[in-house]
Amino acid sequence: MPVLRIATRASQLALWQANFVADSLRSLDPELTVELVHVTTTGDRVQGEPLRQFGGQGVFTREVQAALLEGRADIAVHSLKDLPTVPTAGLELAAVPARAPVADALLLPTGHSGPASLAMLPRGARIGTGSPRRQAQLLRIRPDLVCSEVRGNLDTRIRKLDAGEYEGLILAVAGLSRLGWSDRISLILAPPTMFPAAGQGALGLECRHGDEATIRWVSQLEDRQTRLAVDAERAVLRTLEAGCHAPVGTWASWKSPETLHLEAILIAPDGSETLAAASSMQGPLSQYGSGNALDAAHELGANVAHLLLKQGASRYLV
Question: Which of 1, 5, 144, 164 has its CA 20 to 30 Å from the CA of residue 184?
Fold first, then answer.
């Protein structure tokens, strides 16, 4: 029985995700041995600075991928929203498991009751988020809010919130749920109030191209509906040539077993203008095995991106 080595960052959330994948693999065969290989990434080393100062693209994935390419690991587990949309030579996205909730959430300091909407936040409230996507969407609704950079593990960010550094904090529901912080959610920020990042809530499992033995194990964790949805979302970013830190939100949802609907928005950094586009694809999932459905998902994302470009999206992607 083979030993499968999973490369992962050593953050709390990354380790939860890697252990989730390890347990899922072990459930396929109790005799399978799965080990974790801890990797420190650029994003982990530069906690005090905004990620966009370091290029943004791949700051949480590059070193994890290197562990695969150098043969120190067999599988890389990523938060899919952090994985660049341009494939890395020698690697392939072998599986995307079922997705967690895609929405963002507003957290308030301990002892504060949750607002019914963002409109009820105090004027000029300081909101902790370093994401240009979240910042732009907040400012679209509340131009008076002050968005401040916040980095670190979830517990570190929440501790800063409770210490009074912020009046509110924006985090992904998926991460909060995975680490047991759901009780701190004051308000769910779902579309159309706030659109998530491409791939938010999903995991991406990479393997070396040609490592068929490992790919056979990993591919059993694939969720077809999730894969098609996130591929469509990521195709929007790829066509726009936008990184994961661009002010772009996109959400693909299944309206029926055969209808995938994709929406995307691009917002001026100060929230003053919003570009929006949407489209749908239809077809049975039985097409998936031939690759036709994946091609259709990519085309769906590209079409939505071109609709944004026709509205002048390029001026916000410099």
Answer: 144
